[in-house]
């Protein structure tokens, strides 16, 4: 007996597109995928998907959940509710919390709180270095044994070349991803936006593209040496995309992500000194945006990530140079991709689901193939629906949404997490 039937939709997964209904069993797995599933008399909940696309749930490789330490900006529960509203069924939490996610105790705390919230699978990254201070490696083997699949000092890059080489040597043995927020501090220090014509005009100190590109080049070289699985976080420049493209063309096994804001916004957004547009890496130029889009289209960039980075209104109202960097992203990612990327929907769904799932090795449960027996991690999206972004219409504790008032196309209608609806008709139901 099905517990839930998704009726009338078109499935798009890694196997292509087909008009089918999806039945979900009481144990949270997919029970059947067939052209007509009659739910009458079964007592099953019927979820309407007429005119919609049924897709694998999305996977975000880059989510700041702020817990522990910054619960006024977000909690694991509020952040994962945002994720569910965005169509996600799994997220990877970033480690720049207080304390940092650099020990077994904090890894366990985050995983436990994720399970307790029960809205998506919460995976956590762990820091590469203790306190993300760049000096001593975390107990990577112990953390990997707890299920950590991605290590990063996100918020900062690992500056010390020798230490990064050692992290990659351990990472290669442990078969985990070594993810880098590529930023050379010596070049970025003191900067608050992209270094270019706009930073000159506004009198805001800039962060040059080389701050990112030099570290991309270094990590490509170190990954070649060590055999580590290098993953490049939030690429933002023409040069970074070219470096990764050339490495892949030469046969190197690396992966990369781009955020939604780096393919939709430019440094010109900073013209009114509104810190909602302050982010790290900074919003770059129209040429950089174009290069990110080409990178997403041609496979150089493997995944769309959100870098969902909640900050309190109080902190974002500080002067531009004092406000913290970061913007919300989980609830707008699909619509921004549909609205701004000139790509087939199947490719967009792949960038949001099965390709990031593979990077962290959770593709058995997320993304890929909607077939009987697999976990029912699904979202139902209306690719043609238009809506206006309202920063107050959010599950987040924060409001730092840079898309206020923008009309976007593509909306998440329902999200099903392990067989249970977390979002129905756009509203969180748990
Ligand atoms: O803009 C950013 N915000 N970039 C980062 O690397 C960190 C993040 C945050 O934690 O707010
Ligand atoms: Zn980062």
Number of helices: 13
Helix content: 25-40%
Largest sheet: 7 strands, mixed
| Beta content | 15-25%
The name of the CATH topology of the largest domain is TIM Barrel
Any guess at the CATH architecture of the largest domain?
A: Alpha-Beta Barrel
Distance between the termini: 24 Å
Note the overall shape. Answer: globular
Query: How many domain units?
Result: 2
Tally of strands:
21
Mean pLDDT metric: 98
Strand order of the largest sheet: 3-2-7-18-19-20-21
Protein structure class: alpha/beta
CATH superfamily of the largest domain: Metal-dependent hydrolases
What does this structure look like?
- By secondary structure, this protein is an alpha/beta fold.
- 29% of the residues lie in helices and 22% in strands.
- The protein has helices at residues 76-85, 104-117, 140-145, 161-174, 185-188, 197-202, 209-226, 238-249, 286-298, 313-316, 333-340, 345-352, 354-359, and strands at residues 4-7, 10-13, 16-19, 21-24, 30-34, 45-48, 53-56, 58-63, 88-93, 121-124, 150-151, 177-180, 193-194, 206-207, 229-232, 255-259, 303-305, 378-388, 407-417, 420-424, 427-428.
- The longest helix is centred in the middle third of the chain and has 18 residues, at 209-226.
- The chain starts with a strand and ends with a strand.
- Bound molecules: (4S)-2,6-dioxohexahydropyrimidine-4-carboxylic acid and zinc ion.
- Residues 64, 96, 154-155, 181, 279-280, 309, 324-326 line the site of (4S)-2,6-dioxohexahydropyrimidine-4-carboxylic acid (DOR).
């Amino acid at each position: 007996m099905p517990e839930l039937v998704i009726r009338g939709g078109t499935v798009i997964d890694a196997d292509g597109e087909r008009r089918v209904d999806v039945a979900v069993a009481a144990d949270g797995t997919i029970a059947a995928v067939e052209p007509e599933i009659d739910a009458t008399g079964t007592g099953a909940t019927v979820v309407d998907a007429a005119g919609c696309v049924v897709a694998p749930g999305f996977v975000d490789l880059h989510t700041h959940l702020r817990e522990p330490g910054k619960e006024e900006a977000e909690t694991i529960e509020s952040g994962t509710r945002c994720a569910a509203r965005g169509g996600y069924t799994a997220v990877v939490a970033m480690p720049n919390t207080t304390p940092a996610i650099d020990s077994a105790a904090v890894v366990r705390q985050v995983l436990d709180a994720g399970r307790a919230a029960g809205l998506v699978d919460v995976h956590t990254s762990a820091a590469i270095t203790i306190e993300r201070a760049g000096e001593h490696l975390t107990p990577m083997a112990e953390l990997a044994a707890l299920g950590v699949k991605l290590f990063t000092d996100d918020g900062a890059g690992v500056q010390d070349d020798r230490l990064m080489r050692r992290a990659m040597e351990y990472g290669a043995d442990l078969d985990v991803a070594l993810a880098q927020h590529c930023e050379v501090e010596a070049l970025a220090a003191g900067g608050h936006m992209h270094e270019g014509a706009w930073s000159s005009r506004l009198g805001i100190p800039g962060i040059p593209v080389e701050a990112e590109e030099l570290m991309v080049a270094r990590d490509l070289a170190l990954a070649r040496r060590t055999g580590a699985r290098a993953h490049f976080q939030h690429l933002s420049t023409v040069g970074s995309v070219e470096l990764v493209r050339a490495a892949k063309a030469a046969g190197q096994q690396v992966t990369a992500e781009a955020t939604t804001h780096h393919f939709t916004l430019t440094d010109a957004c900073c013209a009114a000194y509104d810190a909602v547009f302050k982010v790290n890496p900074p919003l770059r130029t129209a040429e950089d945006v174009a290069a990110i889009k080409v990178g997403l289209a041609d496979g150089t960039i493997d995944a769309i990530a959100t870098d969902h980075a909640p900050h309190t209104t109080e902190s974002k109202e500080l002067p531009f140079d004092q406000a913290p960097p970061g913007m919300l992203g989980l609830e707008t990612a699909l619509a921004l991709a549909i609205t701004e990327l000139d790509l087939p929907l199947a490719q967009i769904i792949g960038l949001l689901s099965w390709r990031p799932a593979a990077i962290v090795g959770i593709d058995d449960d997320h993304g890929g193939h909607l077939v009987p027996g697999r976990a029912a991690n699904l979202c139902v999206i209306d690719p043609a629906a238009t809506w206006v972004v309202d920063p107050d219409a959010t599950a987040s504790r924060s409001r730092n949404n840079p898309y206020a008032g923008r009309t976007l196309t593509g909306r998440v209608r329902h999200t099903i997490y392990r067989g249970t609806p977390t979002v129905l008709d756009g509203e969180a139901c748990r």
